[in-house]
Each structure stands twice: as C-alpha cells, then as structure tokens.
Write a structure and sequence with these properties.
Number of strands: 6
Helix content: 25-40%
Radius of gyration: 26 Å
Distance between the termini: 104 Å
Number of domains: 1
Shape: globular
Oligomer: single chain
Strand content: 15-25%
Largest sheet: 6 strands, mixed
C-alpha cells in the first residue's frame, strides 16, 4: 500500500482551503438541487439509490461548474464517473457517506483497489506524461441527518481497506475573502494637466 498523504493536515496543505471550500459547495449544492428541484411527491416515490444517484450527478455537475477551469484540477473518468485529480497528488470522488464516514459501493475490483490505496490504471497518461501512480485516493461526501432531510456534516476521508485512515471535516471552512483593489491614498492630489502655451508671433504690419 502506498499513501503519500498521511494525515488531514497534509491533505489540507495539499488541497488548500479555497479548493476545499469549492468541494464543500459542490456537495452542498448537489443536495440542495435535490431538495429544491425535486417535487415532494417525487421525493416520496424515489428510493434511496435513486436519491443518492441524483445528488451524486448534481455534485459532479456543481464541481465541474466551480472547478472546471481551475489550474490545479483535472477531471478524469473512472468507470464512467468523473473524479477530481488535484495537483496530480490526490484523486477525489464524490459520494454519500454512511454513519461511519464510509461510502456505500458495490465492492468491485476497482472499488477495492481505490479504497485500498493501490495503483489504478492511468487512462490519462497521454495527457499527463509526468503522471506517476499511485496517488492518494480520497472520498468527499456528505452525511445526512437522522431524518435524512438535510446534511449533517461534510468530510474528505482517506479510505484504507475497511476503515478510514483519516477524516477531515470541511463543513466549517469559510469562503475565501474577496480580493480587494488597492485604494488610492486621499492625500495625493489628482494629476494636473500641463498646459503648454503656444508662442504667438506678432505679424508685421
């Protein structure tokens, strides 16, 4: 097993607070889309799998909208599902988390390898010739409240077999402060225009 990101502090340093906030916004936005855009009748009809699938699709859509042009983020496909590749160091998939902060998945070989931090095939080798597997496989996801009507917490976790190696709760991350333009000191007078007088030659009578 190879796991270059050993703790949440290192993950926070690698991902950075701004990207972590955009991941948080993607997760919250996906759940918000379900709550606001799906009718009450449809929510009553949908089973847990359909609900989780809807939210997952919208989390990915939100992530693309927020981070699609970010210089440190690339979206890569794993079994037809987009994952976030950040700085070629961490790969993140967006999922719903259970009470133990574990993602519910059918345990395919690909899922087992991802959760066990084992190297995965690199279909983007042509696009990233310097890319070297393995990287740290992470999961960003939400836990619902007991009534399943809202989000209780949002985490980025590092799976390690049947357990999580570490967990980083991100729903308290503040939005980045807007960049303010430098103001001009008020004690500096405005620039005055220089008027160059034209020399007028008297005409001889």
């Amino acid at each position: 097993m190879s796991n270059p990101i050993d703790n949440p502090e290192e993950a926070e340093e690698t991902i950075g607070p701004n990207l972590a906030y955009l991941i948080l916004e993607s997760v919250n936005g996906g759940f918000k889309d379900y709550s606001e855009n799906v009718t009450e009748k449809s929510r009553a009809i949908c089973g847990p799998s359909a609900k989780a699938s809807f939210i997952n699709d919208h989390m990915i859509y939100r992530a693309r909208e927020l981070m699609g042009k970010h210089p440190d983020v690339t979206f890569v496909l794993r079994n037809g599902r987009p994952h976030l590749l950040i700085k070629q160091r961490v790969e993140i998939k967006l999922k719903k988390l259970n009470g133990r902060r574990k993602a519910a998945n059918i345990m395919t070989d690909a899922v087992w390898r991802y959760n066990s931090q084992l190297p995965l095939p690199s279909p983007f080798q042509m696009e990233f010739p310097g890319f070297v597997d393995p990287i740290t496989h992470l999961i960003a996801g939400y836990q619902t409240n007991r009534l399943k009507t809202g989000i209780e917490a949002v985490y980025i976790v590092c799976p390690s077999g049947k357990q999580n190696r570490w967990e980083w709760r991100i729903d308290f991350i503040a939005p980045p402060e807007p960049v303010s333009k430098p103001s001009t000191p008020s004690n500096i007078p405005p620039e005055t225009r220089k008027v160059v007088a034209k020399e007028v030659k008297a005409q001889a009578l």
